[in-house]
Design brief:
Length: about 325
């Protein structure tokens, strides 16, 4: 009988982290089904809307999606799409399809995640023409490079890799023609928090050190030292999900310091309650009519414990990326 390597604590932790991909995708699927924002592609990755989610969860995801998209779209606009995007821990994200539909694709859109998640995503793309057709339309030759843990086309690439292994990550990105001379946007959403501080510092330092003009958008927890934060940590621990990087999530200042100490020139950070308050009032009125929210204080607490931090290394003088100038999302 064949012997198998023992299942270690790190395997259990990684499996719990991979499960957060399904959690986020299911929450987005439910929120879009209620009309919070439009995403015609999420249904091809998550078929069922699942059980009802609380209104504060839906509004939290709405603010998350709008906040990240605002900065992503601003980067594309400032670079006139002459850039590349690297989504770290992308999961079942649908941004490539949105940008293709809006005719605002970067030169190339990269996604990186655990090989197991990448294999699932590739399976969905191969099986559903609504996903594969837009990809093929941006590809110049008859065939795509496609295997179980990677997919590569002219404008879109998915790579199975462990973000804690920088040398392997860089090797795979270079294999698929990442261009370190091109302005590059890194996006991570609730990813760095599952790496210990040394690992996440190493990753963001590599990004600053390797790319001449770059921006890094990081969405994750903040203000985790208070009682509400401790409850969030305990809830995740019950699911075997350890926030290995929670020490960096103590405050907006600690979030910014990770980037300032690793070679990034300027850093901004806002908690999601602030981002929520900056969203266009007409759209806020629209989403607040979708569901009655009884626990407004709970929404406020929830949003105060997540943040968007964005760091810039601006060799091409792209200028500021500010939330106070929001006129649309």
């Amino acid at each position: 009988m064949a012997s198998h390597a023992p299942f270690t604590d790190s395997d259990t932790a990684d499996e719990a982290v991979r499960a957060t991909c399904d959690d986020a995708s299911t929450c987005k699927r439910f929120a879009t089904s209620k009309g919070y924002w439009s995403d015609p592609y999420i249904q091809y990755f998550v078929r069922q809307t699942g059980e009802r989610k609380a209104p504060e969860i839906n509004r939290g995801y709405y603010a998350r999606v709008q906040g990240v998209n605002h900065l992503l779209d601003a980067f594309l606009q400032k670079t006139q799409c002459d850039c590349q995007v690297v989504n770290l821990g992308a999961g079942l994200d649908t941004s490539f399809w949105r940008l293709k539909a809006e005719n605002t694709l970067p030169k190339k859109y990269f996604e990186v995640d655990f090989p197991m998640i990448v294999a699932r995503k590739i399976h969905h793309i191969k099986a559903k023409s609504q996903l594969s057709k837009p990809l093929i339309e941006t590809h110049s030759s008859d065939s795509l490079l496609l295997d179980g843990h990677s997919l590569d086309s002219d404008r879109y690439c998915i790579i199975g890799a462990d973000l804690r292994d920088i040398s392997s990550l860089e090797e795979k990105l270079r294999k698929f023609q990442i261009n370190t001379e091109l302005p590059t946007l890194f996006v991570s959403e609730c990813v760095l928090v599952y790496m210990n501080p040394e690992q996440s510092y190493r990753l963001v330092h590599w990004a600053a050190d390797t790319f001449h003009t770059a921006m890094f958008i990081n969405y994750e927890q903040v203000n985790m030292a208070d009682r509400f934060g401790q409850i969030m940590i305990e809830n995740l621990q019950r699911r075997q999900c350890n926030l290995a990087g929670v020490d960096v999530c103590q405050s907006l200042d600690s979030q910014k310091e990770r980037f300032l100490s690793t070679g990034w020139e300027s850093v901004n950070a806002l908690d999601m309650m602030t981002v929520y308050s900056l969203l266009p009032q007409d759209d806020m009125s629209r989403i607040e009519r979708l569901e009655f929210l009884d626990e407004k204080e709970l929404l406020q607490q929830l949003l105060q414990h997540y943040s968007i931090c964005w760091a810039v290394k601006d060799a091409l003088s792209l200028g500021d990326f500010k939330f106070k100038t929001i006129t649309y999302f």
